[in-house]
Every structure is written in C-alpha cells, then in structure tokens.
Amino acid sequence: MTRTWPTAGALLAGAAAAVGASACCAGPLLLVLLGVGGAWGSHLVALQAWQPLSLAATLASFGFACHRLYRRPQACAPGQACAIPVVQRRQRAIFWGLALLALVLTSFPLYAPLFY
After folding, report:
1. What are the residue ranges spanned by the domains of the chain?
2. 25-33: long-range contacts (C-beta < 8 A, 24 or more apart)?
3. pLDDT tens digits for 19-73?
4. Residues 6 or more apart from 6 whose CB is under 8 A from it?
5. From 90's CA, which of 4, 26, 49, 84 has a CA 20 to 30 Å away?
6. Which residues contact 61 (CB under 8 A, 6 or more apart)?
C-alpha cells in the first residue's frame, strides 16, 4: 500500500463535505433543472444548519491534503508509486481541480440569488 492513500482520502472527504455544504442551496436548483419537483427539493433547505460544519470539514480535509502534497516530504522506496514524478503531478492536478470545484460549490450561496 502506498503512502498516498491518506491524501486521496482527504481529497474525497473534502469533495464530499463541499457537496454537503452546498446541498442546501445548489441542491434544489439542481433538482429543478433535472425535472424533480420543487416541493421535494425545498426540503433540502433544512440542511442549511449543517453548512458551517460541512464548510469546516471541507477546509480541514483540503488543508490536510495540501500539507501531504506540498509541505511534508514523502519518504518513498524506489519501487513505490509516490516515487514516480508523474504520479505526484497527477495528484496535485487532481487536488487543484477538486479544490476549484469545492470553492465553486461552497461559495454557491453567494451567487445563488442570480439563479432564482
């Protein structure tokens, strides 16, 4: 098992928390766009109370992943995946892609009134 699993787990947790943080606002709009009734989607507004906790989990997860990818050097044996530069570049690209997606999702309440 490679040492990159905690980083991948932190990225997945951060992306899931970002989806949770935006579920109260982006969820109903997405459901209406998909053709699901607006009355059912309006129940997702109850998730707004959990938004600060989800936002904190998003920041913590992405902070841990950033620390693992950039700040903490990895000690890898020559045959492991983390010793291959292409793998490290790919992980960093995935990190920044998911971080951008998380930023768009978590900031949705700021620009949501433009859609309603």
Report:
1. 5-110
2. 25/108, 25/109, 25/112, 26/105, 26/108, 26/112, 29/112, 29/115, 29/116
3. 777 777 766 766 767 777 666 666 666 677 777 888 888 888 888 888 888 887 6
4. 64, 68
5. 26
6. 10, 11, 13, 14, 17
